[in-house]
User: Fold this.
Amino acid sequence: MGTDERRGAASAEGFAEVSRGLWVEEPAKRYRMPDAVRTAAVRAVIIAAVTLIQATIAFLSTLAGSWLAFPMVLSSVASTVVATWGVLDVWVTRQMWHQRGGVVSVPSSTARQLRRERRRARRAARAAARSADRGGARIGRGARREGGAGAPETGAAEAGPTKPGPAKPGAPVAGAATPRRAPASV
Assistant:
């Protein structure tokens, strides 16, 4: 009798019948950072680490009275500026990524392809809705009336009564059609 059988567990042969897999995937609490943001973050961490090492060397060489102290202090100041730039680079890259909606600037981008397909589907739906509203008939370009932005002209009856009298030069002739004005927003 084996140790497992004494404890009440199945023997070693019983493990072959277990259907559950060895590795169980759990959903991630946070999604993986985009590649551009992760690259900027790694670069910022490396720059910050080098800056801290330089600052430590500058401090220790100052305590020891070494000639290396002054150049290390200068390089530490410069590295601090570069490290600040690195952190700002991470922040700007992250904001840019969120504003673009995750579209990679590569023609083979999956996000771009999905957006293109959605746009085509929306256009097709709008075209189908338009053709259903029109009853399938289209209005040709020649069917528009002349007279400014396709607006119909006003007839003599709509223009109102005119006073009989001598015609002034430049005054509209009675019974002549006066074109309507287009709205100011056009």
Residues 69-100 form the longest helix (32 residues). DSSP finds five helices and two strands in the chain. The chain has a mean pLDDT of 76.
